Amino acid sequence: MTIKIFNTINRKKEIFKPVKSGSVSMYVCGPTVYSHPHIGNARAALVPDILFRLLKRKYDNVTYIRNITDVDDKISDAAFKQKKTVYEISETFIKIYQDNMASLDILEPTYQPRVTDNMPGIVSTIEKILKNGFAYISEDHILFDTSKYKEYGELSKRTLDEMIDGARIEVADYKKSPRDFILWKPSSNDQPGWESPWGLGRPGWHIECTSMIKSIIGNENTLDLHGGGNDLIFPHHENEIAQGSCMSSSKYCNYWFHNGIVLVNKKKMSKSLGNVILLEDLLKNNKSNSIRLALLSAHYRQPLNWSESTLIESNNLIKKFSSLARSFVGDINKYENLDNEIIDILSDDLNTPEAIKHLSALSKAAKTNQKDLASLVVSAKFIGINLLAHNISTLKAIDEELVKSLVEERFNARSSGDFKKADEIRDKLLSMGISIKDLEDKTVWDYNPDN
Ligand SMILES: [Zn+2]
Questions:
Q1: What is the pLDDT at residue 391?
Q2: How far is CA 190 from CA 186, 200, 385, in A?
Q3: CA 174 to ligand 1 centroid distance, Å
Q4: CATH, range 21-263
Q5: Distance CA 77, CA 83 (A)
Q6: Ligand 1 is a single-atom ion; what residues have CB below 5 A from it?
Q7: Can you give the residue ranges of every domain in the chain?
Q8: Quick one: average pLDDT of 238-267?
Q9: Left, alpha or beta for 67 (phi > 0: left; psi -120 to 50: alpha)?
Q10: What is the CA radius of gyration of the chain?
């Protein structure tokens, strides 16, 4: 199994090879914790989750780091508006973020470093960049001097003018060039601040990721994989490369992967349009399996257009797969290698739409073949869709053992020609919210409380 990934820095699909054989390091920019996660945040966590699962299958030692930005002006603004402390806001939304991701069966990264726990490391990274001559001090700000780093622009392939016109570039008097970016800025007494050789202040956003990566993998080590949304390519990831390359003699990162945006009915999500879809709201009315499948329905590098039908289609597929899976008898653990085909599909630049097609093909074959049914269950499980487990709300609502024994009792009644008893049992099941379907040699069931 060879993993291929589209490497943004070279603009082509490449065979992935870690720096150290058998051991992989991956970093993904995590959330800034000041509001409820939306489906865009979910996609940004789910894409690396699929890659993490693949890497873990192939390599013994995978270190996956996803940071938490818990100091930021957006958090300070939210705290001010809600009359709370920055700490209260960040703690609240860290918990919500982690709960939402767990609901979607997104695996926990190996490390989830917080910016506020890493201030000494951030300060010493900035000191190294200053000492190496790639930064300057101006009006109590420490700025990265982009004119000194000749490869600046290598990831985004932007020209000087494009960079200056680019989004999120702040023009300020204290900068030698508008391209230069902040490593450290001063804090007033009512702003979050930490003591530093340059007085009370706080870090710029870009330096946080670079120092958290280096503090975990080591200053002189190269990161294997770095991911994030493609809106982070410039300036955030461009700046990370500049910082990382100027504080250490080793290459910063070998493979960069970026996921596309989530659109809602072909429009960008925004507060002003009122079309932001929060995970919390989705999870209230939908099974996590369906949300997960919907988020995987487009290739990760393409935009994902979210609409009512995206979720309905995924829901229908999950219903079909789940009711088939319930007719599975035996020990699923005996079929562990049956997911090889889906692994091959995903190894080619995380082709999740193709993986879903594969599940559909298996589901057709699974109606008559127990091995294909087992393959459907283990392949779905590989992408984090557990067809044998019920949602917590479903588990509370039904007694699965009772349902199984009634379905079996009815099947036996039918087989022996006792249709009156079979109908009575069916009515009882219906009243419990269980719908059943008779196939040639078995009966499959599904829990549909709304039907
Ligand atoms: Zn980052």
A1: 41
A2: 12, 11, 46
A3: 24
A4: 3.40.50.620
A5: 10
A6: 29, 209
A7: 21-263, 286-382, 392-447
A8: 97
A9: beta
A10: 26
